[in-house]
Each structure stands twice: as C-alpha cells, then as structure tokens.
Specification:
This protein is of the alpha+beta class and 96 residues long. The chain has helices at residues 9-13, 61-69, 71-81, 90-95; strands at 3-4, 16-20, 30-35, 38-43. Strands 1-2-3-4 form a four-stranded antiparallel sheet. The chain is globular. It starts with a strand and ends with a helix. The model has no long low-confidence stretch (mean pLDDT 92).
C-alpha cells in the first residue's frame, strides 16, 4: 500500500501530493512529489532529483518545507515498504 505524506490542506487543495508509491522496490529509494499529472522523484539517499531537469525551483517552498520537516518519516516509510532496499544501505553504513 502506498504512503501519502500528510500535507497542509491548502497545499493539497491545489493538487500537490508526496508519496511513497507501490511497486518501486527495484528503484533507488525515493519519494514522488506529484502536482496533478506531473511527477518528480526525489532520492531519499542523496536528496537529489532522480530525473534530469527536475529541480526544487519547480516546486513551491511550502511543499519543500513539508518534505524536509518529515524527511525521517519518508525514509522510515520507504524502509517499511521495501526492507530489501533500505534508504541506508550496507555500503552507506560502512562509509560512516
């Protein structure tokens, strides 16, 4: 089951959503930011966008602030959905 990050009503009402989607277990850990039919995939390991040309300039600051405030929750939700592809991989742990 997908996870929807809780967003303020004003953000949701204009069409913004942030999700951990189903059936993405083979991809790098990421959250999908949605505005109507447009999607941005934000890597939970690097905090960079996965698709070329995507940037924070395309996303309202209120959405970015909501994501940053709940970053840990997004990572935990990814790990719960995809325990075989966690945000913090074994190689990441060795680097620390």
């Amino acid at each position: 089951m997908a996870y929807d990050l809780p967003l303020d009503e004003a953000i949701r009402n204009v069409g913004w959503k942030v999700k951990i989607r189903d059936r993405e277990r083979l991809e790098p850990p990421h959250a999908t930011i949605l505005f109507k039919r447009r999607a941005w995939r934000l890597c939970l390991r690097t905090r960079q966008f996965l698709d070329e040309g995507d940037s924070w300039k395309q996303i309202p600051s209120a959405v970015r602030e909501a994501i940053e405030a709940r970053w840990k929750t997004l990572c935990e939700q990814w790990d719960a959905h995809y325990p075989n592809n966690p945000v913090l991989s074994a190689s990441d742990e060795q680097d620390n």
